[in-house]
Amino acid sequence: RKEVEQDPGPFNVPEGATVAFNCTYSNSASQSFFWYRQDCRKEPKLLMSVYSSGNEDGRFTAQLNRASQYISLLIRDSKLSDSATYLCVVNHHYGQNFVFGPGTRLSVLP
Amino acid sequence: DTGVSQDPRHKITKRGQNVTFRCDPISEHNRLYWYRQTLGQGPEFLTYFQNEAQLEKSRLLSDRFSAERPKGSFSTLEIQRTEQGDSAMYLCASSPTSGRAETQYFGPGTRLLVL
Predict the structure, then answer these.
(1) Contacts of residue A89 in chain B, CB cutoff 8 Å?
(2) Given CB 3.0 to 4.6 Å as the disulfide criterion, which of A17, A26, B73, B89 pairs with B37?
(3) Cβ pair A42:B33 closer than 8 A
(4) B71 to chain A nearest CA, in Å?
(5) Cβ contacts (< 8 Å) between A49 and chain B: which residues?
(6) In terms of pLDDT, which residue wins out, B52 or B100?
(7) Measured between alpha carbons, how far is B109 from A59 in angstroms, rounded to an integer?
(8) Which of A17-31, A83-97, B37-51, B65-79 has the lowest mean pLDDT?
């Protein structure tokens, strides 16, 4: 079993749709959590950190459930420019050993 | 551009040859990471430096792989006796040790093809 698992995708949704991505992690000692975005043939870029109380950044909402070892990302009112691969990332030891999930690809269709 | 830079961007080599990649992190960042990414997968951690000290190495990093960061600035990743399975994107990232220390900034990567 992989240490970080994500919805296999791809997700194909129309513009304006709401889409949710799920991620689970196996190491209960994990300390911090992130969502990164990676465009085709580009490097990953931080989308948002995920905090225990949940957090929102515009159309994006991230949730963390430590008991279930589960992380989610919700995108509301999706735009064509949201088309990318979304990577769930878990950090075991502060600043070190970041573990990336395989990613979930999103295509937002006109 | 003050972001992370990597050189070369592309490398084609024959099996058995040695290759070396360079990463220049953001200048004030103490932490530097190397990752490998294959098609359809997320980046896999290879190794991590804090300043010039290599603090962690993945078991993915066989003895054919070596990384250095001699002056705590740029880093090199060398692969000896390359194999076709080494074909991948090699990504470098850096992060500060204070402030948003957990935010990693990635370079554009070096795409390696071993024939």
Answers:
(1) 42
(2) B89
(3) no
(4) 20
(5) 102-103
(6) B52
(7) 29
(8) A83-97
Contact status, residue B93 vs residue B106, Cβ threshold 8 Å: yes
Length of chain B: 115
CA distance B82 to B13: 8
Q: CA–CA separation, A65 vs A52, rounded Å? A: 7
The pair of three-digit structure tokens given for residue A11, joined into one six-digit string? 């997700």
Structure token pair of residue B43: 């980046």
Q: Given CB atoms, is A58 within the 8 Å cutoff of chain B? A: no
Query: Binning pLDDT at 50, 70 and 90, where does residue A5 land?
Result: very high
Q: Which two tokens stand for residue B17?
A: 């040859």
**Test mutation, A40, A43, A45, chain B, max B CBs within 10 A:** A43
Compute the residue count for chain A: 110
Interface touch B45/A99, C-beta < 8 Å: yes
